[in-house]
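TA notes. Do not distribute before section.
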Amino acid sequence: MAKDTAVGDITLEWDQASLRDWDRLISAMPQSPLEQSWAYGLAMAQTTPFNVHTLIARQNRKVIAFSLVYSWRLAGTVTVTKIIRGPLFPNPIDALTRSRLYAEIKAAFPLHKLNFFTWMPEQVSSPEATKFMADVSMRQVITGYSTIWLNLAQSPDVLRSQLDGKWRNQLKKAEAATFKTRISEKGMDLEWLLQKHDEHRKNKQLRAPAGDFVRAVIRLCQGKQHVMVLAAQKRRSNHAAILLLRHGRTATYYIGYSDEIGRRNYLHNLLLWRGIEKLVADGVQWLDLGGIDGQRMPGVSRFKLGLGGTPTTLAGTYL
């Protein structure tokens, strides 16, 4: 992996952070993507050919940015390296400092040493973001990932008032039905969800995380409060379930499944709303609702938009 470097007053530190260090950095962020959590990084290292590395950038000893970096050495010659939704910035930095930082990160993976480096910055799509990447000689190869951020620093009453009218009516119907809901962090509900998720993913050929990878992320999460499985059932049979993962002050809606009965009774609405109520009560500030794509997943995208969050498209992946 790259060695520690210093250019002027900016220093890059590689693989010096502990789990405690990373948790402290993530917990200080109001918003953070799951892909930058310690559990996700270790799951990548344990279930894929990639190794995970920590990068901390300092300016005059103060942390200005940090990121997990994934690398894969091929045949002892070529190194495939990628940054996924990083780096994160504990505090705003000026454009000049960001440009210098980006240049130093890019310089850590020189092409002449057979480094194949791709970068998906956690930066909203804009002309400014495109310029930052162009200034370090990187071009977009994949268009920006889109998600929805829901601000949970509001009361459940306010959040409910912001729901789309159709979504709220579906929730009322689900609440009036006679389905039992429960929250757990493992056990039968989780295994049911993972099995159904994998079957659905394979049948529909979806670009979604495999059940084994999801299981690894869950296993590596620190503490019960980081994993929330919500399930709805009737007569001891599950008809819907979702998985929410907490990382710092953020949670991510990671996977979910509803059968025909669940869809007909809007149980996904019910479970997500129950999860939101619990996250608000636990002090979580933001919920990342996961990917949306109006062309490939129009129904899923409309469902997530109905929660009243803010659609966000990132700058894309660069090479």
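Switch to the second chain here.
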Amino acid sequence: MKRVYFIAILSMFYSLTLFSQAAWVEPNPANVNDSIMIFIDVSQPDCECPSLINLDAEGDSLFLWTWEPTENATINNGQWNSSNHLLRMTSEGNNIWSYTMLPTVFYNVDASEVYDIGLSFLIKKFDGSAIDGVEPKSTDLHVDIDPLGCANTLCSFPTVFQEDDYLTMIYNNLLETYSSLQNMTPDECYMLPVAVAGGVDYPYFNGSVSDPAIVTIPELHMQYEGDGKFYTTILSDQFFRVDSDNPVPEGVPIEKIKVRFRKTVFTGNISQYYELTFKCE
């Protein structure tokens, strides 16, 4: 089974936690392949859950109930009148409750889905059945998780990776030194990747750097995240051993990836090579 470190990371905007809100996550920005903590303050008006206030002081328990980015989480919610005990939240005191999870594992989704969709959930008593017509729960809550930033011209996530990892490569066009390659529009960034294995270069694309056929290969088109950053995610062994015009032979370890970038319409310039090195098995 392949280890999944899939992620699409690129935004440099830092989202400040607003503690006047009922729900937030820490850290944020975050690597959603690592642990995060969801916090809910049931005393905040946005929670719309007066029946849950001060239950921590009374020694009662509250539970997470979640449905996004997917309802098919590895830990199911249980029944409305009988929550899953594995979703019991931790009292942090002062009406604040927390739950720790590793989002991609908990929801069994790629990191891109977590970043694109965010987390939707509510907090409830073990039995959410109505009491005097009122269910002991919060309103529906939602938090977005911002990806970590990229401060170099080419970044990768994870930063330490092997061939059977999903690898996200991030190109920061704002740091491009060739003037003719600067200010790329969202649709005009293409990459020319080369695998280096056994000291031999294996270019993914057989064409020349100026070949217009590059625009017909969707695998080489970089997606735009915003703020001058482009990204793509590959499974390295599949990408370079199966899909490539020049497949790396089985049994020859891939040592590193070299990548250059160009615009849709060749401008006479292509970026320098940027390198990413694989971790030894």
